[in-house]
Design a protein that fits this description.
By secondary structure, the chain is an alpha+beta fold. It has ten helices and eight strands. The chain starts with 16 loop residues before the first helix and ends with a helix.
């Protein structure tokens, strides 16, 4: 039972107060970073809008037409379903019902309403930010393990959808990677993040294949025998949602095992989570002891994360 090198009791899996605090601060920082472009956009909008003497004059400032649409409450997605007449109606409603009643403060009112809609956009982005941060941490840990072993690797760039030779010192890989490849003593290993294997029919966070990156294809993804390990990663740090995250992950892992059992196959399964409370830690540890789960780690525990990353590189 390889997990015992880092986890000797269920309490080892529990997220500490300090880790929870650090996690919340990390997400707040990321939120502020992602909000920066919207704030700068609002500042530019204010500068240009100051050319208008009264709200109706904003209609003559064609440069800010997209921003007027945003301030009127229309999301970027909604614009694809509206006619130009619909868009102008929304802008006129903004001017007549909100900007004109604001009097001399109409430009401030415009900026506030612009930021309100942009805030919804930011909220949508932030709903996935915990998972994104968790995935980045895992990718960086895997790369560090490969570096120690001096194993060359490639990564699947999410922007170009092409495999690129990786460099250990490249700090942008974890931002852009949706897959990794290396060759260890047991063979060629390709990892893909967030895919839907045909055998499982649901999204799986991490899948490790027994194949080279250049032979990866739909046929390989559809072949149950090519899967070495499958895992669930939950990066949410809020203790209030911990149990729900584990229930979702546990159900997903059970679905994975049942799907492969039908083919008389038993790939390794693992769980990595940021928010792990007492009751779920006991369940995870019990599954490890019964060899239901092959491995597990607390994402906030650096030693556990590095250990499971090293394990992934060796299987």
């Amino acid at each position: 039972m390889v997990f015992r090198e880092q986890i000797t009791q269920w309490k080892d899996l529990v997220t500490t107060y300090e880790a929870t605090r650090a996690g919340f601060i990390s997400i707040a920082f990321e939120k502020n970073m992602k909000a920066t472009p919207f704030v700068e956009e609002a500042k530019s909008l204010k500068v240009i809008a100051q050319k208008a003497k009264k709200p109706k004059d904003l209609l003559n400032l064609t440069d800010i037409y997209p921003s007027l649409l945003t301030a009127s409450g229309l999301s970027d997605k909604s614009l694809n379903h509206l006619t130009e007449q619909d868009k102008m109606e929304a802008i006129n409603n903004l001017i007549e019902k909100f900007l004109e009643p604001a009097g001399e403060k109409f430009i401030d009112e415009l900026v506030y309403r612009f930021l309100l809609t942009r805030g919804d956009t930011l909220g949508g982005m932030m709903r996935n930010i915990a998972g994104f941060i968790g995935e980045k941490k895992l990718i960086r840990s895997i790369i560090a393990a490969l570096s120690v072993k001096r194993l060359g690797f490639k990564y699947l760039n999410s922007k170009t959808d092409s495999w690129i030779a990786g460099e250990y010192v490249d700090l942008t890989i974890d931002e852009n990677a949706k897959g990794l490849y290396w060759n260890n003593s047991k063979g060629k290993r390709t990892v893909l993040f967030n895919i839907t294997p045909r055998i499982v029919k649901k999204n799986v966070d991490i899948c490790i294949f027994d194949c080279s990156y250049d032979t990866m294809s739909k046929e390989v993804k559809d072949d149950p025998k090519k899967y070495i390990a499958l895992g669930e990663l939950k990066g949410g740090i809020d203790p209030a949602g911990a149990d729900e995250h584990w229930k979702t992950a546990s159900t997903a892992l059970e679905r994975i095992r049942n799907s492969f059992n039908k083919h008389k196959l038993k790939p390794l399964t693992f769980f990595i989570g940021a928010a792990i409370e007492n009751s779920m830690a006991e369940e995870i540890f019990l599954q490890l002891e019964k060899n239901i789960l092959s491995n597990a780690a607390n994402l906030t525990n650096d030693a556990q994360l590095k250990f499971i990353a090293n394990w992934l590189c060796e299987i």
